[in-house]
From TrEMBL:
It comes from the Bacteria. SUPFAM superfamilies: Rhodanese/Cell cycle control phosphatase. GO terms for biological process: tRNA modification. It comes from Bradyrhizobium icense. The gene is trhO. Keywords: Oxidoreductase, tRNA processing. One of its GO terms (molecular function) is oxidoreductase activity, acting on paired donors, with incorporation or reduction of molecular oxygen. SMART domains: RHOD. This is tRNA uridine(34) hydroxylase. It catalyses: uridine(34) in tRNA + AH2 + O2 = 5-hydroxyuridine(34) in tRNA + A + H2O. Its EC number is 1.14.-.-.
Length: 250
């Protein structure tokens, strides 16, 4: 039986994130889950794998359970499958940020770009006045990206600030559309650009994974595969696992 994989995140105020670590680890371990979860004052970000019932119970606790007390009701969530366990162990980590931009003043809960549904993405990025930016790292971009997207050439997301300062201009780039694997990096990137004078900023809701899940392959503007940070390495349309993965990527 294939395993179920849940990728999730939400920006939410979690001032008690340190106290949440052990109860969350204990709950996930009790369900036999493996994977990685990041907790910070700004929210949660993670990917875990296990049996169907265990994953459903874990997601239910995040969204509706007493542990988070309703604070994760808007959890961005995507499911996929794996033929074998894609993680070696369970890790619950405490971080300054759930995705590291290096600017703690950026708060996606206060200001964020316009979400674009996967069904509307093709039309947006085909418009000649739209600058399409892939906010991922260079090795991720090399595996696949959208037609015509700008590669910032960054080795880590924290370098996005320098890229924006050097290459982007609010007076010149009137409409920007960004995308990333699951949507989380774009939320921070869009909040950052809005805070620095860019007026019209869009980002792909649910990221590449949601697009590959819902947009038919014959209508897709995606080329290549989408890198994922587990032993499956990459996913294609329909979130199908690439065959022959044999490395550990975290």
């Amino acid at each position: 039986m294939p395993l179920k994989v849940a990728a999730f995140y939400q920006f939410a105020a979690l001032p008690d994130f340190r106290e949440l670590r052990e109860p969350l680890r204990s709950f996930a371990a009790g369900l036999g889950l493996k994977g990685s979860v990041l907790l910070a004052h700004e929210g949660i970000n993670g990917t875990v794998a296990g049996g169907d019932a265990s994953i459903d119970a874990f997601v239910g606790e995040l969204q509706h359970g007493a542990l988070f007390n309703g604070r994760l009701g808007n959890l961005e969530l995507k499911f996929s499958t794996a033929s074998e366990m894609p993680f070696r162990r369970l890790k619950i980590r405490l971080k300054k940020e759930i995705v590291t931009l290096g600017d703690t003043a950026v708060d996606p809960t206060r200001q964020v770009g316009t979400y674009v549904e996967p069904s509307d993405w093709n039309e947006l990025i085909a418009a000649p006045d739209t600058l399409v930016i892939d906010t991922r790292n260079v090795f991720e971009v090399a595996m696949g990206t959208f037609e015509g997207a700008l590669d910032p050439g960054i080795k880590s997301f924290g370098q996005f600030k320098e890229f924006a300062a050097q290459k982007l201009d609010p007076a010149k780039h009137k409409r920007i559309a960004m995308f990333c694997t699951g949507g989380i990096r774009c939320e921070k990137a869009s909040a950052y650009l809005l805070a620095h004078g860019f007026d019209e900023v869009y980002h792909l809701k649910g990221g590449i994974l949601r697009y590959l899940e819902g947009v038919p392959e014959n209508e897709s503007r995606w080329r290549g595969e989408c890198f994922v940070f587990d032993e499956r390495v990459a996913l294609g349309h329909g979130l199908r696992q690439r065959q022959g993965n044999d490395g550990a990527h975290e």
